[in-house]
# Entry
Amino acid sequence: MMKKITEYFVTSEAHYLNRRNFIKQSARLGVGLATFRAFSSSAEWMQGGGLSDKMISTDYGKELALNSFKEITNYNNFYEFGTSKRNPAKNAHTLKPKPWHVKVSGECLKQGDYDLEDFIAPYQLEERIYRFRCVEAWSMVIPWVGVPLASALKIFQPTSKAKYVVFKTLLDKTQMPWQNRPTLDWPYIEGLTIAEAMNPLSLLVVGLYGKTLPNQNGAPLRLVVPWKYGFKNIKSIVSIHFQETAPLNTWQGQASSEYGFYANVNPAVDHPRWSQARERIIGGGSFFSPEKRKTKLFNGYGNEVAHLYTGLDLVKNF
Ligand code: MTE
# Structure
């Protein structure tokens, strides 16, 4: 079983990299991305797994060196499938990402239960390469496929009372067997201020490396907010709720002295049990001498997001 998965990972990555080269060559030859747009229809995004023909390339993170598909899909935090990094890849096959519904509720005019295909269909899928920094002080670079969260939220017409957006993961002990254990308070919950949610960097993700999301990475729908620690990037979302007050997110509820609401990447604010000044690059260096680098404020996305926190004490509001 493992061997088969490994072969699949390798093949998929090779296809992906070929496609990237093809796009680069096409660009050089003057064949615009419009060619790809012509094939784009996010309505078909769930059929067959491949998203390459349905997404457009963007400039986000083009200069970054990618982690491999194997690294991204074999070193995961998804406590619904176990607490070790290897567990999700082994155990998440019990998750059934299709069909999938998302309930939209609270302070908005268009509440309802939406089939995921309808939910995503109106938008152009985009590929965006983002840095990913876990609160545990490791990092990766991941080519996500998704839609801007702002576009997806605006359609529900949030009211003036919608100050926060709260996301919930599926609660289903059959599909997510570790929900039978009291490791965390289930379901996993995360939230953003409405301004953070509407920031152009915030992405609702349905794929990576040009394919639909593998189960262990949060299929079929997850949040990606690259200037925040990884735990804000909630997986397998079934509920989006607009509300006036700040929610208690799962990790804050678990240990409020260690994990806050904002969770902005910040090398100057250490975790009570370890430093946040540096990060270990997954796949870099060796086991005995891992490659590290300095962590940047807002994970390097300060130009895009620093204005969201003007006047806010980032030490108190960690
Ligand atoms: N979402 C759910 N539902 N359950 C989780 O355990 N872990 C979080 C986040 N989203 C988690 C979750 C943490 S701690 C991290 S670092 C990222 O997912 C990991 O995402 P990845 O496995 O795709 O790298």
Observations:
- The chain is about 20% helix and 25% strand.
- The two ends are 42 Å apart (CA to CA).
- The mean pLDDT is 89.
